[in-house]
Recover the amino acids of this structure.
């Protein structure tokens, strides 16, 4: 189980989470603007 959390795997996961969070925030902003 410890092998899953190697520094090599953490970077792409953080990048994916960051981009997903960015798109989510942009989507929320668009919804607020349309109101």
């Amino acid at each position: 189980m410890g092998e899953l959390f190697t520094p090599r795997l953490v970077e792409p996961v953080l990048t994916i989470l960051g981009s997903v969070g960015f798109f989510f925030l942009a989507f929320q902003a668009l919804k607020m603007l349309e109101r």
